[in-house]
UniProtKB/TrEMBL annotation, chains A, B:
The active site is at residues 273, 361. Contains 1 topaquinone per subunit. Keywords: Copper, Disulfide bond, Metal-binding, Oxidoreductase, Signal, TPQ. The modification 2',4',5'-topaquinone is found at residue 361. Topaquinone (TPQ) is generated by copper-dependent autoxidation of a specific tyrosyl residue. The keyword Hydrolase does not apply. GO terms for biological process: amine metabolic process. This is Amine oxidase. The keyword Flavoprotein does not apply. PANTHER family: AMINE OXIDASE, COPPER AMINE OXIDASE. Its cofactor is Cu cation. Residues 1-32 form the signal peptide.
C-alpha cells in the first residue's frame, strides 16, 4: 500500500497545483460582531414579542473576536483556546510525550460528558469536569487519550484493534503537499504546464452555545471532523410552552466519494472526507454577503494543530434567518363558496451553514430549522471537479464514448463520473431517549368482490423494528414507507404515538459491488437508513480510524450484530447520495447542486403548531433604500 | 353513474359547508401596479447593466388594473376582455345558439396559432388572425368550436369520440353546491352540526407577456384549465448573446388525487383537478406580503363565465425575484494550499407563482428560473384535509388501526390516506423543435481480473429512445438514469450534444391496480416520465373531457401507439407524486409540503454560464429600516 499511497499523495499535490491555475482574486473578509437579537430578528421570538424584520436595521460592524477569554458555559461547549493550550502543556509534561520530537495530535476535542448527565444539566448548574479526547501519534504509534483538564490526569482509552489511521493533521497534508516538490522531474512537469506554484500552508481550528431562535433551542459547535454538530435540539410546544426534546445530536458522520475510473492513477480515488481530511478542518471562512446574507451571524472555530497549538478559524459557521418568499401555510376559499377568505402565513426559517472545501470540491451543509418543527438538512455541492487529462479535444475522436469514464468537458479535460454520499448521525430523542423505529409501509390492498367499485387502495401498515436488521432500509419507489422515530411511552390526546419522521428527498444509492474494497470501507452506504442502539463509541460511520481502513469498524459491521432497538435510546443514520455525471456547465467551477432530507414532526404536536402565527402587514416590514439614495 | 354523481355533489357541497366553519377573517387586497423594472431589480438585466437590488426602492403603490383597453401583443397572449365579449356576441348570433337559453360555455380560450408560426414570429410582426377555442354545451350536447374573431366565422372542430365531459363551469359548481339545499333532510343535517351556511357564489377568469428577467425570456399566461402556462422559454447564451430555445410550452396538464378508502361514500374520491374543476378557475387572488413577498408583481386572469361573459380574477399570478441566502457557486481554497481564495456568488432567482384552491386543498405552483439556466418547478400542498367523521375519539378504541383508512387527527376526525399526482406537459425545444430523448443509464461495470484493484465502477450508457415505449420510465433508485432531451443536430465545441435534463426530486408512484377504474382514468401516472411526438391536440394527460371519462383519451392511450420520437418535435411529461398519510400537524390547516423537479442544462452551455457574474459588495445592497424608524 505504500507505493499506492505515494502515488495518491503525488496526485493530491498535483491537483492542488492545478487548482491554483483556476483561482481568481481574494476578497477581504469582514467579520460581523453581534449575535442576532431575537427581538429584532424574529416575530416568534421566544423571549419577547416583536414584529419580524427580514433585514436588520444596520449592517453589523466588522469586529474581530478575541478567543483568549472564552470560557465554557455548557457541558457540550467545545474546548476553548485556553483549554487547548492546557491540553498541550499537560501532554508535553506526560511521560509518553517527554523526549519525543515526533509526536502529532490528530484530534483534540471535547470529550463529551455522558448523555445522562447532559440531559439533566440545566443552565446555572455547575459544569462537569472538562476533559479532552486526544488522538495522538507518538513514535509512529497511535494513542487515544483522555486528558482531565482539572486534575491533569492523562489516561489511555481502549478503542479496540482496527485497521486504518486517524484523520490527517493539517501538517500531514501540508508536508505531503510539499514532498513532491523535492523531485526535480515533478517540478519540471509542473513548470511545463506553466504553473507558478505559490506557497502552500496549513491551518487547523471551536465555540458555542447559540441563544435560541423562534420556537427552537439547540447547541451548536464547530467540530474538526464533523464540521457542524447540533446537540440538544428542542422545540417549544405551542400548547404547553414546554421545550420538548427532538434530537440529542446530529452531524455529518462520514462522506464517501468513489470515482468511477478503475485505471491505475484513479482507482483509489474513493475519498472519505470526514475521517480522512476532517470536514471541519477543511471548512474555510465564509464570505459575508455571498456565502450568507447580510443578516447573518458568524461563529469561529477554535481547533488544535498537529503540535497541539490552538488556531482560530474565523467565520467558519453562519446563522441567519431566511425568507425566500415561501408559504408556511395557506387556505383560500374556492370561488364557488363565494367567500373572500384568504389566510396565508409566510415561511421564515433559521439556517445554520458551513462550507467545507475538501481540496477541489466545496460542500455546503445547511441545518434549517422551521417554525413548524421541521428540520431540513441540505447539502450543496460546488467547487471544482476532479478532472483527468486526455489527448482528445473533441468527442468525434472518441470511438467508444462510454469508455472514457466521464464527459469531455473541455478540450483535453475529462470530468470523471463519481458519487457523493453524505452519512448523517441522527441521535433522535423524541420526548426522551427511549424511542422506537417504525416503518409505516404503504401497501396495496385489494378489495373483495362486491366490497367496492374500487379494486384497490393503499393501506398504511405499521412495522415496529425489533432489531437492527429490521431497520436496514433500501428506499423503493414502488414499495414506499414512511420512517418514524416514535416515543412509544407517549401518546397524543387522541392516542397516536408522538414522533418525528425521516423524509428522504432526491437521493442516490451506491451500486458498487459489495466486495469491492472501496465499498467495504464505505459499507455504511449499503443502505440509505440504519438504526443502531446508542453507543457513545459509535459515532463515525466509516470507523474511528477511517484513513486506509479496511472496513472492519463501519456502521455496517456494528449493525450486523443485530442488537435490540425497540423502545431504546437509538440513533438513526441517513445517507444522502448524488450520482454525478459531469457536464460542461460544471466547468471550471460548478453551479451548486443541492439535495436534502427532512426530520418532520408526525403526531408530535396535537395540531398545526404554526396556526396562530400572525400574517405580514405592510407596517411590519422594513423600508429599504438603495445605498446611493441614503449616501 | 348518475346516482353516484349526485352523492359526489352532495359531499362536495357538504365539505364546502364544513370549510366555512374553519375559515377566519378576510384580508383586504392590495394590487400592485408596475411591472418590475429589470434595471432596478436585476444585476443580470438583459437590457441595461445595473447592480442588483434585492428589494425595490419603494413599495409598489396599490392600483386597480383596467382590462377594457387590453390589446394582445403576442401570438400567445390570452383572449382579452374585449375579445371574450366578442366571442360571446358572435356565438349568440350563431344558428347553433339562437333560441337556446340553456347553453353553457365550458371553456373559452385562445386557440393558439400553429407552433411553426409562433416560432418564427418576432415582435413588430403582425399578429395572426385571433381565434377562440370554445367548448360549449347546447341542449345537452358538447361542441368544440373555433371562433375567428376577425371574420366572425364559427367552425366545429372534430375531437373524436371520447367518454367524459368538459371541465365544470363555475355555474355548474355553484348550482350544484346549492342543489342539496332544496332538500330538507340535508338542511336538517347541516343545521344539526351548527353550521351557518353563507351565500355561495361563483367566479370564472387572462393576460400577458412578461418583459424579460436576467438571462431569461418567456411568455406567461393564466389559463382557466392549466393555471399558469409558460411558453417560448428562452435563455441567453453568455458567450454569443443569442437567445436560445429551451421549452416551447410548459404547464400543469392534469392532477390525480385518489383517496384510499373503498367504502361507499368515499370510493369515488379520485379527483382530476385540472380537467374536472379547472386549475386556473380555482386560483384565487394571491395575498400580497404573505403569498408573495413585497417585491412581487401581480398579474390578473381574464376568463369567461359559463354564459360567455368575461370576468377578471385579480392578482392571480405573482412574479418576484427571490434571494433565500443560497449560493450560486463557490470555491474556497483548502487550507493546505495556504491561499486566501474565496470566490462565492449568491443565487438570485425569479419565481412565477399561483395558488389554486381546489375546494379544501391549496396547491402552490412555482416556476422558478435560475440564472444558470435551470428551471425548477415546485408544487406545494397546503389547505384543509378532506376528512371523514368517525365515532372514535381515541386510538385506544380502535382494534385494527390499519383499517380506519387514515389517521385519527382529532376527536371524531379521520384524515384519509391519499395521493397527489401532478402531471406536467413539457414541450421541450432545445435549440429548436427536433429533439431526442436519451436515457443515460448508470450501470455497474465489473472489471476483468488483473485489470484493476477495483472490482466495479459505474459507466454511463446512453440509450436514445426510438419510439414512445422506449421513453415510458419508472424511476428506480438501484437502476438510475439521467433523462436528457438533446438536440442531435447541435453539438458543443468539444462535440457533446446540447441538451437539458429532467432531474426528479422526491416523488411517489401510483400503486393502484392498473385495472382499477380510477387508475384507468389516471393512467397518465402509470409512469413517471413519458415522451410523445408533438401533437397539438394532445395537451391534457387525462383527456380533453376528463370529467367522468373512462380513460380512453389519456396520455397512456396516446403513448401506446408507440410512435417514432427520435429527432422529432417531442413533448416530455413528468408526474410529481406525493403519498399523504395525514398526521395531527395537518389539522386544521396543513403546513406546506413541497416537492419539485428540475429542467437543467446539460452540455447546453460550453461552460458554467454564471462564472462571470459579480459578487455582492456592501455598497450593492439596500439599507433597510423598520417602518417605525421612518415614520
Amino acid at each position: 500500500m505504500d507505493s499506492r499511497n505515494l502515488i495518491r499523495f503525488l496526485f493530491f499535490t498535483f491537483i492542488i497545483a492545478l487548482l491554483l491555475l483556476l483561482t481568481l482574486t481574494t476578497i477581504p473578509l469582514t467579520n460581523t460582531g453581534e449575535p442576532p437579537d431575537c427581538a429584532i430578528n424574529s416575530r416568534w421570538c421566544t423571549s419577547k414579542t416583536r414584529f419580524f424584520q427580514p433585514t436588520i436595521k444596520q449592517p453589523p460592524k466588522p469586529t474581530t473576536r478575541i478567543h483568549t477569554t472564552d470560557v465554557p458555559h455548557h457541558p457540550l461547549d467545545p474546548l476553548t483556546l485556553t483549554e487547548l493550550d492546557k491540553v498541550r502543556s499537560t501532554l508535553l509534561e506526560n511521560q509518553l510525550f517527554l523526549h519525543s520530537n515526533t509526536y502529532a495530535l490528530h484530534s483534540v476535542v471535547l470529550e463529551e460528558p455522558d448523555k445522562s448527565f447532559v440531559l439533566t444539566w440545566k443552565p446555572g448548574d455547575p459544569l462537569p469536569a472538562r476533559k479532552a479526547s486526544v488522538i495522538a501519534r507518538v513514535k509512529s504509534k497511535i494513542h487515544v487519550l483522555t486528558v482531565d483538564l482539572g486534575t491533569g490526569e492523562v489516561s489511555p482509552r481502549d478503542v479496540g484493534e482496527h485497521s486504518g489511521y486517524p484523520t490527517m493533521t493539517m501538517e500531514d497534508m501540508t508536508s505531503l503537499t510539499w514532498a513532491p516538490l523535492g523531485d526535480a522531474e515533478f517540478n519540471r512537469t509542473i513548470m511545463a504546464r506553466g504553473v507558478d506554484l505559490k506557497d502552500v500552508s496549513c491551518l487547523p481550528i471551536s465555540i458555542g452555545w447559540f441563544v435560541k431562535w423562534a420556537n427552537w433551542e439547540f447547541h451548536l459547535k464547530p467540530d474538526p471532523r464533523a464540521g457542524i454538530v447540533i446537540s440538544r435540539a428542542r422545540v417549544k410546544d405551542p400548547n404547553t410552552g414546554e421545550m420538548r426534546n427532538v434530537m440529542y445530536k446530529g452531524f455529518t458522520s462520514e462522506l464517501f466519494v468513489p470515482y468511477m475510473d478503475p485505471t491505475d492513477a484513479w482507482y483509489f480515488k474513493t475519498y472519505m472526507d470526514a475521517g480522512e481530511y476532517g470536514f471541519g478542518l477543511q471548512a474555510m471562512p465564509l464570505d459575508p454577503l455571498n456565502d450568507c446574507p447580510r443578516n447573518a451571524y458568524y461563529m469561529d472555530g477554535v481547533f488544535a494543530a498537529g503540535d497541539g497549538k490552538p488556531y482560530v478559524r474565523e467565520n467558519m459557521v453562519c446563522v441567519y434567518e431566511s425568507y425566500a418568499g415561501d408559504i408556511g401555510w395557506r387556505h383560500s376559499e374556492s370561488p364557488i363558496t363565494g367567500m373572500e377568505i384568504r389566510e396565508v402565513r409566510p415561511k421564515v426559517t433559521l439556517v445554520v451553514r458551513m462550507a467545507a472545501s475538501v481540496a477541489n470540491y466545496d460542500y455546503i451543509v445547511d441545518w434549517e430549522f422551521q417554525t413548524d418543527g421541521l428540520i431540513r438538512v441540505k447539502v450543496g455541492l460546488s467547487g471544482i471537479l476532479m478532472v483527468k487529462g486526455t489527448s482528445y479535444d473533441n468527442m468525434n475522436q472518441v470511438n467508444e464514448p462510454e469508455n472514457i469514464y466521464g464527459t469531455l468537458i473541455s478540450e483535453n479535460v475529462i470530468g470523471v463520473i463519481h458519487d457523493h454520499y453524505i452519512t448523517f448521525h441522527l441521535d433522535m430523542d423524541v420526548d426522551g431517549p427511549d424511542n422506537s423505529f417504525v416503518k409505516v409501509n404503504l401497501k396495496r390492498e385489494t378489495t373483495q368482490p362486491e366490497e367496492s367499485p374500487r379494486l384497490s387502495y393503499l393501506k398504511a401498515v405499521r412495522n415496529v423494528a425489533k432489531t437492527e436488521k429490521d431497520a436496514q432500509v433500501k428506499l423503493k419507489l414502488y414499495d414506499p414507507s414512511e420512517y418514524h422515530i416514535v416515543n412509544p411511552s407517549k401518546k397524543t390526546r387522541v392516542g397516536n404515538p408522538v414522533g418525528y419522521k425521516l423524509v428522504p428527498g432526491g437521493t442516490a444509492a451506491s451500486l458498487l459491488d459489495l466486495d469491492d474494497p472501496p465499498q467495504k470501507r464505505g459499507a455504511f452506504t449499503n443502505n440509505q437508513i440504519w438504526v443502531t442502539p446508542y453507543n457513545k463509541s459509535e459515532e463515525w460511520a466509516g470507523g474511528l480510524f477511517a484513513y486506509q481502513s479496511q472496513g472492519d469498524d463501519t456502521l455496517a459491521v456494528w449493525s450486523q450484530r443485530d442488537r435490540a432497538i425497540e423502545n431504546k435510546d437509538i440513533v438513526m443514520w441517513y445517507t444522502l447520495g448524488f450520482h454525478h455525471v459531469p457536464c460542461q456547465e460544471d466547468y471550471p467551477i460548478m453551479p451548486t447542486v443541492s439535495s436534502s432530507f427532512d426530520l418532520k414532526p408526525v403526531n408530535f404536536y396535537e395540531s398545526n403548531p404554526i396556526l396562530n402565527i400572525p400574517p405580514h402587514f405592510e407596517k411590519d416590514l422594513p423600508v429599504c433604500n438603495a445605498v446611493a439614495a441614503t449616501a
